[in-house]
Specification:
four-stranded antiparallel sheet; about 210 residues; flat; alpha+beta; 2 domains; 8 strands; Coagulation Factor XIII, Chain A, domain 1
């Protein structure tokens, strides 16, 4: 019901898709359809191109994995043994790790662009130390489905040892977008020998 009218130039499609006339030109070219194609190529092309995909794979996955492999094999695999022992410790303690509470200060109920929000996360690490984890705040546009879109991540810093394996992590972010705003906190393993934070497949969400 949408493709044919847009291609053949029906006036019912003038408000749909990219801007452009919905009548054919002298060469019988579906100008509105061509306008949609140009709009798609100019806006989505850079994001879905093979060049962009290859660049992301190399910089985000292949190169870090290669560098991690070289570090692990150095000095007769000394770092590999250290990483293996650390991984065993983290996997053993991970089921006990949880985010106890998250709060924020610094903005009103109607945050504005430029406002600074301080996020505090109280995390029970039990036998792990703050150096073993990365505590992040993920923030973005809050949708009606209670999900976040256009998400940005920021590390929270360990601020206080509260005793009994509990720690306070805090950080400040500047609201840089309009519309409904939301955030959440997550915890991932952290070690210099890991190729990425997701390598162990462990995560705790608030």
């Amino acid at each position: 019901t949408q493709v044919a009218p847009r291609f053949y130039g029906s006036t019912v499609s003038e408000s749909a898709g990219a801007a452009g006339p919905s009548t054919t030109g002298t060469e019988k070219v579906p100008t509105h359809w061509v306008s949609m194609i140009k709009h798609t190529l100019s806006h989505l092309g850079p994001a879905v191109s093979a060049e962009r995909m290859l660049h992301d794979y190399v910089t985000l996955l292949y190169r870090p994995a290669a560098e991690a492999g070289r570090r692990a094999s150095a000095d007769s695999y000394a770092q590999a043994r250290v990483l293996a022992a650390w991984t065993a410790k983290v996997r053993s303690a991970w089921p006990l790790l949880h985010v106890e509470h998250v709060d924020s200060v610094g903005v009103s109920e109607d945050p504005q662009i430029g406002d600074t929000l301080q996020v505090n996360a109280y995390v029970a690490l039990h036998t792990l130390s703050p150096e073993d984890v990365s505590v992040e705040v993920a923030y973005g546009r809050a949708e009606e489905s209670d999900t976040l879109t256009d998400v940005t991540q920021m590390d929270l810093q360990a601020k206080e040892d509260l005793g009994d394996g509990r720690h306070l992590f805090s950080g400040s972010l500047v609201i840089d977008r309009s519309g409904p705003f939301g955030y959440t906190v997550r915890v991932l393993p952290r070690h210099e020998a890991l190729a990425s934070k997701a390598e162990l497949g462990l995560i705790v969400n608030a």
